[in-house]
Write a structure and sequence with these properties.
The chain is mainly beta and about 300 residues long. It folds into two domains: about 110 residues, no CATH class; about 170 residues, Distorted Sandwich (Glucose Permease (Domain IIA)). The protein is about 10% helix and about 40% strand. Strands 10, 13, 15, 16, 17, 19, 21 and 22 form an eight-stranded antiparallel beta sheet that branches. Strands 1-8-7-4-5 form a five-stranded antiparallel beta sheet, with no helix packed on it. A three-stranded antiparallel beta sheet has the order 2-3-6. A hairpin with a 2-residue loop joins strand 16 and strand 17.
């Protein structure tokens, strides 16, 4: 059996029944190319361990020995000492992504990954969008907040939580879904960048969905996010928890999966108590439910 067929079969098995909210009507095909023909017994450059090949999804794999560099769409992807790696796909990703490996002997291997589109929850509203005209004071404050968020996401802590199966940080009613969006008389508003969990009131505890290191703990509420907690899970993957009433960990602290790290609230711009949990890999915004599975 050819490598392309084996890779296709492995991906089909890995992605079957993953619970993506809106699977595509027809999954696109993909292809494997090599710079030179491979001998029948020659190992492939990388293998897929687990995957959610859809917008807002991700892929975890293992690179074999002898790999010099790995890239996703031309951008470098770090590979762990054991060959493990992680990549992810933005909410608005196109239908293809290219995973390429260059081997130590100069050969190369490329896989074209099919990224399934999603049928997002879209609400059409017959009103014009309300223009936001922030004051100069707000702009100054907001610029400082955004700078702190960017600096936090730039930190590389060496955390290894990205290797784990994620758990829900809290249990409750899902009051806002990732990717949902309003269209105001044909003009798209901002889409919802995370998932909202309503627990019925302030003060309920939430836990770390995976191991990590605290990269931001804003005990003084930000204008929009309120008391904001950010956890680096390593490999470019991080979680953000918004609107907290209390933060129970400090910047630089290592946390373990399932550890209580804060309490749910309604600080910042929130209409009621809930936990907004968002996940980001580099600049790609991801769907948390594709990491945890349904709450059940």
């Amino acid at each position: 059996m050819s490598y392309a067929r084996r890779f296709a079969g492995a991906l089909a098995a890995l992605t079957a029944g993953c619970g993506a909210p809106a699977p595509p009507e027809a999954a696109p095909s993909f292809a494997v190319t090599r710079a030179a023909p491979a001998a029948p017994s020659e190992p492939v450059a990388f293998a897929v361990n687990r995957a959610q090949l859809t917008q807002g999804g991700w892929l975890g794999g293992t690179a074999t020995g002898g790999i010099a560099t790995l890239t996703l769409d031309g951008k470098p992807v770090p590979v762990g000492p054991d060959g493990r790696f992680f990549v992810a796909f933005d909410r608005d990703a196109g239908t293809r992504a290219t995973l390429a490996a260059r081997l130590a002997d100069g050969r190369s291997e490329t896989v074209t990954l099919p990224i399934a589109p999603r049928a997002w929850e879209i609400e059409h509203v017959d009103v014009a969008p309300r223009p936001a005209i922030p004051s100069e004071a707000f702009r100054r404050i907001r610029a400082g907040e955004l700078a702190r968020i960017a600096a936090a996401r730039a930190k590389q802590t060496g955390a290894q939580g990205w290797r784990q199966d994620f758990v829900w940080p809290a249990r409750g009613r899902i009051s806002g879904r990732f990717g949902s969006q309003r269209i105001y008389r044909g003009e798209p508003g901002s889409y919802h960048s995370g998932i909202d969990i309503a627990t019925g009131g302030s003060g309920a505890a939430f836990v770390a969905p995976a191991d990590g290191v605290v990269i931001l703990a804003a005990t003084s509420p930000f204008t929009l996010e309120g008391k904001l907690l950010m956890i680096d899970h390593g490999a470019g993957l991080n979680s953000a928890f918004l609107h907290c009433s209390e933060l129970l960990v400090r910047e630089g602290e290592a946390v373990r999966q399932g550890q209580v790290i804060g309490r749910i609230g309604a600080t910042g711009r929130a209409t009621g108590p809930h936990l907004h949990w968002s996940l980001k890999w580099r600049e790609a915004r991801l769907d948390p439910i594709l990491f945890t599975g349904p709450m059940g």
